[in-house]
Specification:
It comes from Sarcophilus harrisii. With 1251 residues, this protein is mainly alpha-helical. It is built from 56 helices and 5 strands. It has a 3-stranded antiparallel sheet with strand order 1-2-4, with no helix packed on it. Helix 37 runs parallel beside helix 40 and helix 49 packs parallel to helix 51.
Length: 1251
Amino acid sequence: MGSILEIWNTHYKKTSLETIKKVVPLRRIEKLKGTRALPCLAHSRQLINTSGLRTDSKGTRFLYGSPRLREPRSPQGHFRVALRGVPLSWRRRALGRRRGRVPPEVLVRCHSEGRRAGGGKMAAVQVAGAPVCGAREPPPGPGSGFRRLSARLGSLRPADSSSARTEIHLLFDQLISENYSEGGGGVTAEDVSALLVQACRLVHLNQEHLVSKVSQLIHHLLNRLQVIVDEQNLDFLLAYTISAFQQCSSWTHMEILQALSALVYYNGPKCQKYLPDLLGETGILMKLSDPSQSDPDLRRAAVHCMANICLSVPGQPYLDEPYRNVCFQTFLTILQSSKVSGMDDITFCMLLQNALKGLQSLLNGGKMKLTQTEQLGSLLAVLKKYMFHGLPGLNIEMPAVLYPAPLPQYDGRSPLKQEPLEINPSKPVASKRKKAKGKQKKGHQGEELKEANGEIGAGAASVLGKLTLHEGSAVGSAYLSTPSGGSEGSSPAARDRASSYLSSSPWKRISSSESDYSDAEGGLQSKMRSYQAKVRQGALACFLSTIKSIEKKVLYGYWSAFVPDTPGIGSPQSVSLMTISLKDPSPKTRACALQVLSAILDGSKQFLSVAEDTSDHRRAFTPFSVTIASSIRELHRCLLLALVAESSSQTLTQIIKCLANLVSNAPYNRLKPNLLTKVWNQIKPYIRHKDVNVRVSSLTLLGAIVSAQAPLPEVQLLLQQPCSSGLSSNSSAMSWLSSSDWRRDASYAETLEESTDMLAASSGEPCWLIRLCISIVVLPREDPCSDSDTSCTAGNIYEPSPVRLESLQLLEELGTGLIQQYKADSTVAPSQRVPVSLVVMFWAMMLNGPLPRALQNSQHPTLQASSCDALSSILPEAFSSLPNDRQILCITLLLGLNHSKNPLVKAAAARALGVYVLFSCLRQDVMFVADTANAILMSLHDKSPNVRAKAAWSLGNLTDTLIVNMEMLGQSFQEEFSGLLLLKMLRSATEASKDKDKVKSNAVRALGNLLHFLQPYHIVKPRFTETIEESIQALISTVLSEATMKVRWNACYALGNVFKNSALPLGTAPWTAQAYSALTSVVKSCKNFKVRIKSATALSIPDKREQYGSVEQYAQIWSALVTALQKSEDTTDFLEFKYCASLRTQICQALIHLLSLASSADLSCIQETVEQSGDMVRLYILQYLKSGVEGDDTGSAPSPQERDKMLSEALEHVRGIQEPSGEAAKKAITAYLEGILTTYTSAAESCGSLL
């Protein structure tokens, strides 16, 4: 008798199972018991005495043909015919529905598809039989079965005999059926690649059944073991599969495409040699992905393969641009096309998913630039269309292209029709009989349907399906209008009110007992909803990648297409991202939409700054500023509505993060008040949410409110609320804020109570936010282990570290807001500022327990680092008013933490010391300055780049303090400051100037200040001479380097500080020419105009002619400045144009300064300029005299009278030069300057007469 496998392969897709039964009677199968053709199945599962599809304990699906007969377990056992991957519809058609037609020995076993596969049919049957009750062998070691089968396969040689084909078939079947443990069970990627190469060598392309089987093996092993084939073996396998596709019959193409898809997964750039065969004009994938392709499954598999090619590993090469463009256009065409006839809905959804994944991979690669408006508009149009694909209750029509527009574009809604699900004609309609409740299908299908049955609480999308999304909605007002003393939106009454809408919601989940469908039909409906939800998630993920790949200024042109706006009277609400966030039944999809909205809002401050609605406009048109303000208000309303209705913790976290992004970027000082008050009141209950991430994001939102355009009057009123304000008296969530909770920790209760009583005595009652943050940091919580804290241990009685960390950051925000009020450029009137006495009491309360305790908590370094940041946000005026012991405590803690082994703590402590050294009450203390300097220098040599960067910043601040003390206290401070320490600082800063740019920018700033601080008795010492030379050379090399513009700007600034020290031998030292050469090179040719401005400023600082060096040196500087003036408008960067006027102003000022110091020998070069470029220089000097400084970054600008005086003094200086050799040049220059002054005076007089 021929092999059953060969018979099956011969008749596969040509005959039914009944035909096979006629060819191979069961009695012949009985004779094969115990032979090698039927290997023992040691782990067989129980039979179920019922018809239809059931599962075993491993999630494997079985179809049992006979409900009447059940063979008992016996030594003789029973047999299985395992048909892997055969579609359910085919099996039903083959086996029939009549009872008793198939004997109980014939069982059909169907395995789930691979994770990366697009489906397909496997052409093998495994016949197995063994006594079920026999003795079981001990399970083999991990990977042993694979290695044994691989060794057997490796011993074979290519042959075309029937027995060889049979043996290869059996080996392939056993390899596919092998139970691979998680992670491969010790099987390496090299082993898998070698086995697949050997398998392909054994199978000739004319053996189509074996080609199909080896394709299944490639697909199964690479997916099951998560293997990415190396480049050498990939070359052979790709050549084999492409040749197989070209030579074999069409019935094998699906399996070959699946194998090809698994091979190219994350290997796209390594397939360059084969890309013409795959993605060329006549390439395999291009043909199969064409809309004219008749087989929808092949088209879907081809698109899936193309999407896998587009996947790239970060840091690895990308696809070449022509192929990227081909793939992009193919995916876009698929998304723009409608569903073709003959394609069922699920296949169409899978096709869309593959196209969206391909687009996302191209965009994530970073090389796909959407520069053309048509290209970007087409992509955004299809993404918006599929964001709502299959969304219940919504069916929209989108234009082919979205264009940038200030108003919402057409998104017409067609009447909603309940279209029946299109079933593949090859699949029969499911049985109408219901199954017993509770026996639901598991396995792969269960995983697919998990999302469809996701968590949707009482207030989730089912409620919002009935809510009207406009301002006057009764439901909306019921949620958002809360009394001043309570937060009704989250109270039980509000929740009951929300759940009252469940009965009328069209999207309420229906239990199996209430459904009009059978289980099979209901499962198909659920599966369909699951696939549609995945399409929406794919579109949102692709949109998120699009946002990251285009400039924000381009993105905001499409703001109105994706962000909601208040609808006009009689017009419907436009669909937007908030429509998904409010109405989508899938929590994951809602979270994706909110994540996209957060990405849009992130960095939108400049765009939203135009919003304004402080006054009611009564115009014939709506200004753009009012439109944006309306959009902000609608975002507030919708997000708060979603906040109340959401029950999924993951989605809730995204809502709060989205609100925080909105609060951080919206211009509330230009909007009507009360927006932040609503957010403030609604977020309070979530501070004690069971999920840690929700609690952390709630504190982040409160921090964003506190720092929103600080100090906003509305926020000040919110901060002045006492503990009892805004809290419901019967709210258990807020009962922990009562004063009794402050006494749970006896060691700190007394000091905390005293401090809060002090604050209460001044302001009536302490702010609940301050008490909240302090209690989170230092007090045990009531429920030490909440449901969501999986890492909670019995000894951990405090809030989780992320929550405590966010509380400290919130306290830091409060401190920073107070500092902003007291800055010199603050717009807050002194009468409206928070009194310093209250600030002192606040910090006294902080220093009486929370901060010292957190600072000394070495078990939580992030908590220590955040505490250091909070301590650095103290108001300087408040610090000087603190008791002396509190000041000493702060300094001692920071100096101690600077020795921490943790880089986060050390960096935070170094930064805080850099803040403290600027305090007026500390900077004059030589001992404190010296101690701080030693601590900073120690951190400057740390191995962590972050620590070194923070230490360099602090060193720059410390040297600023030295300069201030030198100017205010004079020589006494300089003499008292240690010379050895000064030398040590010079050497450390010189070494740091060779570090990374983040360290270098502040190191060169410190070098300039230190060289300025040096006194003559320092400079003459031999040990200083060499160090000074090295320091100046470091500055010169930094000016000429290719470092960032910030570094070069600081280096020019530092050289200007060096020139201010008259004790340095400027003009005679060898480094003088190098310094001037570096500055003149930068002022002429640097691309960044701010660096040019700073170099021109440095060139105008020396106040003596000798400091400019020789005549040749002077002439070089003069010519460079004239050339720079000529090139002051030569730039290709539009952003630099705003600095052109400032650059010309600074150059003119430097030229006039050089004129006022010129000697007779210098007049010849000046005369040459007058003769060659006199008209150009005259024009710019007249502009300088008339308009002065435009822009910024030029320092303190002289007034018009001072500018006139400077030029007049330069003229008098030139007139006063008494050298016969330069008389002619002097006359020419004098006449030239007099002409400029006369023209300026005449113009000024004519302007005065007109006024």
